Amino acid sequence: MVHDCWVLYMWDMVAREIHVFDPLAGPRGPSSERKQSLQFVASRLHDALFHCLHEYFAGWPKQKDSWSTIYPKIVDTLYRRPDSGPIVLHLVCYYDGERLKFPITKNNLEKTRCDALHEVMKLRENRSPLPGDVLWDALAPSQFNFGEFLNEEQA
């Protein structure tokens, strides 16, 4: 997280590029002030990544200098801070290294939110305190809700 929102950093080891996806940058991309902040984080992460590669993985690139940082345009409209998490999750799921398979839209973000909730609810030994109706809708969406199902069973 960078100060106020989630940001995705991706390393293209072949092209020697760091892709920085800032969900709050809007259609124009991040401002120069924002780029400085994002670049600071990218630099720290880059150093840590190459320290890890050098320490634990033989055969991976060892040269950490001369990498470029790019800021791909990912959204056509401005989004709010609470949307940055689902946008990053959408990017992780649908960015193939060159383009998005599905664009970031309000409808796609809502689907990403629901899919993420669904996956979390399916985790083994999930002991969610959510009410039964919400849990049932997330795990098995259908034409009836959990409460109706229980009422039919009790009758």
Question: Can I get a quick summary?
Answer:
The chain is mainly alpha-helical. The chain has helices at residues 32-56, 84-94, 106-121, 132-139, 146-154; strands spanning 8-12, 17-21, 68-70.
Number of domains: 1
Could you say which structural class the secondary elements and strand pairing correspond to? Answer: mainly alpha
Helix coverage percent of residues?
A: 40-55%
Number of helices: 5
| H and E order | EEHEHHHH
Provide the low-confidence segments as ranges: 143-155
Provide the spatial order of strands within the biggest beta sheet.
Answer: 1-2-3
Biggest sheet features = 3 strands, mixed
Q: How much of the residues is beta strand, in percent? A: 5-15%
Average pLDDT across residues?
82
Give the CA-based shape: globular
CA-CA gap between termini: 51 Å
Could you please describe the fold and organization of this structure?
The chain is mostly helical. It has one domain (8-121). The protein is built from 5 helices and 3 strands; from the N terminus they run E-E-H-E-H-H-H-H. It has helices at 32-56, 84-94, 106-121, 132-139, 146-154, and strands spanning 8-12, 17-21, 68-70. The protein has a 3-stranded mixed beta sheet, sandwiched between helices.
Layout: helices, strands, pairs:
Layout: E1 8-12, E2 17-21, H1 32-56, E3 68-70, H2 84-94, H3 106-121, H4 132-139, H5 146-154
Parallel strand pairs: 2-3
Antiparallel strand pairs: 1-2
Helix pairs in contact: 2-3
